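Structure tokens please, single chain.
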Amino acid sequence: MASKRNEGTYFLARVTLHGKLKEKGLESALAGSAIIQVGKYLWTVTDSSPGALADGTSYVFGFLTKYRSQGQVEVVDAERKRVEARVASDLVEAKSPFMYIPSRAAIAHCLVWNKIDDKAFRDRLHDLIMSRDWFFADLQIEAIANLDSFVLMASKIEKVTEVEAKVFPSNPLWGPLWRKLRKYISDRKLGEISISERAAAGDSIRSDLVGVVQKSPAGEVAEGAESLDSVADQAVLMAAAGYGKGKIVGMSGDVVVTVKTSQVVASFMYSKIPSPDGLAARVVQELNLVEKKTGLSHR
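Here you go.
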């Protein structure tokens, strides 16, 4: 067990592959990562290695590494008792350990304070993968929301004025509360769908999202739960599971409150220097807890 100060915050995200990426998988792209430049820093995936848990769950462990092509380091000249600055090539600025679980379409990564935050990790990894010369391929890496925190924040909204979501087909998991919307997307052969609702002047949008989740026993949604009627409510929950982006806007007294699925990301604490098997097991455990909240299932 790592001491508290040796632990870091790991965020969970959903990885959805399309086209050639879905056929070939993400593993080869991570192993042969490209190098991209954003501002003065270079980014790549380093030390990528596949593995498997005792139950057969495969994973890919690695680091998203941020570095400079050249930088200065201080070294001691022992003979002259002086500290000197020397130029160093490919100087590492920060690296974030990550764990990708293909069968769960999910990835976890460690926050590096002021160096690699949650959004930067998802954006840079997306850009690295898509920078390769893929033919008919696409990729989404979206935050998995902490549903308890999302619902708690949304419950403070007294009058809902806006509901927005942009979602894409869920694969390989689906949630019963957004069953109807998933079927609609599948039947229509849609790549994504955007939903935007605005309340009539002075009115509040009728939403069952908060109430349905709060009434679920032990905060969990049963696999056989009835789908929500509202398309917008379904889309927001779908986004919360990592299949898009969603937000609810409204009033709490005279204050405008905006709650986004991306601002309450599911996370856990674990060693900053993890063993691959240990981290993989912990990620699977956390995914099990998160997915129970929305009743996610492979069926």
